[in-house]
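Dear colleague,

Thank you for sharing your sequence with our group. We've completed the structure prediction you requested, and as agreed, I am returning the results in plain text so they can be pasted directly into your records. Please verify that the sequence below matches your submission; if there's any discrepancy, let me know and we will rerun it promptly.
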Amino acid sequence: MTFLGLGLLSMCNVRHELHHTGKKTDKLETLMIRIGMFSVLYSIPATILIACFLYENFQRGNWEMNYVSVCLKQRTCLKDSATDFEADANLLTFNLIKYLMMLVTGLSTGFWVLLSFKTASNWAKLLQRIRCCGKDSETAV
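Please find the predicted structure tokens below.
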């Protein structure tokens, strides 16, 4: 996140210098907006994910002690954990938030790549080549 902030700061300096020289900065401003949106869409879920990992690290001992105490009460370790073991009520919510933040981080990266015009045009060219070559190979047979 530090590198994203430093990169945006240096691009602002470059934009400021280019603006004073009279050159057009439209494309640079568009790129800065996209990078800013990506950094927000990346840094917020990443921060929450780090907090989830820290919570998991601090609570793991309690979860393991709860599991061991159930094993000792029943004098056997659990075979069917869904019916015998009652975990912390926050465990399900915690895991859902953790996996949702991983998903949001991946989706923001995927949208960055897939929604660019260059990527869409390259995919269109590839599919057009596949369709053209596929028809030629069928007629040759």
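Summary note from our side: The two ends are 56 Å apart (CA to CA).

Kind regards,
the structure core
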